[in-house]
Design a protein that fits this description.
Order of helices and strands: EEEEEHHH
Number of strands: 5
Structural class: alpha+beta
Number of helices: 3
Radius of gyration: 19 Å
Strand content: 15-25%
Length: 129
């Protein structure tokens, strides 16, 4: 997220203009719906809208968006790939029969922990709580 989010009370705007597109891209954070228009990202809640701008529009450049606006997702993917790969190789060397299952569980756990840790570090560096 490039800037701080702006809260817009629901009473100020009850509808979305035609030029705003519904989207599933982005973390919903409990929102009922999400919308995008260029780099503008809008989350709709029961009583308000939260609006911020992204540095890169994920619909035009998904990898650039991950690098600039959501690097914690890349850290999670890298953590999952590395841990899953190492677990699989270690299991093959140890001749485990449930190697695939163990590797998938290890990858999912490492990916989640990597993602959450990177997100907390990013928020701390940005001065957010």
């Amino acid at each position: 997220m490039s800037g701080k989010e702006i809260r817009v009370p629901r009473g100020v705007r009850e509808f979305m203009p035609d030029w705003i597109e519904p989207t599933i891209l982005g973390e919903p954070h409990g929102a009922n719906r999400q919308y995008r228009y260029g780099n503008l990202h809008i989350r709709e809640y029961d009583n308000e809208f939260l609006v911020h701008t992204d540095k890169v529009d994920p619909r035009k450049d998904p990898v650039g968006h991950l690098i600039r606006d959501a690097p914690e997702v890349l850290v999670g993917i890298a953590g999952a790939a590395l841990a899953g790969g190492l677990s699989y190789v270690a299991g093959r060397y140890g001749k485990k029969t449930d190697n695939i299952t163990t590797s998938v569980i290890t990858a999912a756990t490492a990916g989640y922990v990597s993602y959450v840790t990177a997100k907390k570090i990013r928020r701390l560096l940005a001065g957010e709580s």
